[in-house]
Design a protein that fits this description.
single chain, alpha+beta, 35% helix
Length: 430
Amino acid sequence: MKYHQINSALFVKNRKKFTAEMKPNSVAVFNSNDIYPVSADSTLPFAQHRDIFYLCGVDQEESILLLFPDAPYENQKEMLFLKETNDHIAVWEGEKLTKERAYQVSGIRTVYWLQDFHKVLNEMMTYADTMYINTNEHYRATIETETREARFIKWWKERYPAHNVAKSNPILQRIRSVKESEEIDLIQQACDITEKGFRRLLSFVKPNVTEYEIEAELAHEFIRNRSKGFAYTPIIASGNNANVLHYIENNQQCKAGDLILLDVAAEYANYSSDLSRTIPVSGKFSERQKAVYNAVLRVKNEATTMLTPGTLWKQYHIEVGKIMTSELLGLGLIDKADVQNENPDWPAYKKYFMHGTSHHMGLDTHDYGLLHEPMKANMVFTVEPGIYIPAEGFGIRLEDNVVVQEKGAPFNLMRNIPIEADEIESLMNS
């Protein structure tokens, strides 16, 4: 891995939080992700399942974590199962985790090779009443590929039909959404790497540069700072491309006078950052572009102040909609009649701002969090309003990542990344 080793104390804390919520005499199992084939002998780069990483820090394929806090013997309460390394694997793939190294990473002393898993699990099932299975219940999830976790669940249900079943996901949704200080530091590192990439762009962007050249500059800066690269597929949308919310082709030339909407950010140690900025190709905003830009910035700044403990996500978005409505009226994009006659299920402002303002973030860019429950201190959210005007050939989105504080204003992890229009113009022309 490119990132520096994370102190295993974080994963010890995370496991304690999870096991504290488990039912008596129950077992929980977590599987790593598969390495997915492309064709022939090609594969996609490995990306670890965030849940097993959150609980033990193992960033390796074919790994299994078993938790059994009420096990009859101390060495059975936490167990790791890993792909056995050998000299052949070391030569062809690089060394895998040894048992001692796995302990250093995870803080788990009982480590088996993977071939022992079924035998050990069978013994644990004779002691346990309930199995926690780890299904993906994220509100944005669309799953068409059978995962390693799904295959295990199917096998386990056939093999042990007499046991009770419980779900890990509701526990993880709650505990993963509230970050430990170590996690906030890792997200901050991802944001700091993103800052380096963005500042690099401000001196690079000129008329006729291509979107993919901008992508290449970012990738260079991210990787040279110990990131694997982008936290999500980058959006580099010049001109009217910005009005396609998930534009990812990044293959057009950036023309003088246009704006570029950048939704690009680095990961670090599997933790995400999530940045949006909009910059002028020629280094200067037109009067109209700046008016819309500053309207979006005002919405972002006001929305940020509402991210406080006790806030409800749904009500928050209603309040942001009111702020956006006022700005759109000021810009002449809607009028009072539009507001008076609006459909409550699709308010007038949605014509120009059709997505949500904030989502949880952390190990996943759209991270775990139960949206019907009030916000809590140490949750991390994006704040990302936008105004999209196809008729005028541009769209603007601005986005920062903030930490909800117990008292006072949210803490902006992207506070050092330029966002004021005048500062961006100054840096682009220096």
